[in-house]
Structure to design on (103 residues):
């Protein structure tokens, strides 16, 4: 069984016991997170599609912790001017294990 959830504008395909990386959540490690906006569920060929979301279906996950993604660098360069600027940042993510898809 799998589901497609909408988490703050990002759509993810999840199944039970999957570990997904989401944008940073304001949740503590070990706490439970509930995703109420489920767009689609599939259970052995029985597909249910919401318009836009399914009623009474939710996905429950457990927060495993926060981490930083890989470093992304950007370079601004102006030719013949002797000007160069290098910037970078690391995005913060939250790792969540999907515990159950409740229909």
């Amino acid at each position: 069984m799998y589901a497609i959830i909408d988490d703050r504008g990002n759509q993810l395909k999840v199944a039970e016991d999957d570990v997904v990386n989401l944008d940073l959540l304001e949740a503590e490690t070990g706490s439970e997170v509930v995703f109420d906006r489920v767009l689609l569920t599939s259970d052995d060929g029985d597909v249910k599609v919401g318009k836009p979301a399914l009623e009474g279906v939710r996905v429950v996950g457990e927060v495993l912790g926060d981490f930083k993604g890989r470093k992304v660098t950007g370079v601004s360069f102006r030719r013949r001017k002797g000007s160069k600027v290098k910037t970078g940042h690391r995005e913060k993510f939250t790792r969540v294990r999907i515990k159950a898809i409740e229909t």
Notes: Residues 2-66+95-102 form one domain. The mean pLDDT is 94. The two ends are 11 Å apart (CA to CA).
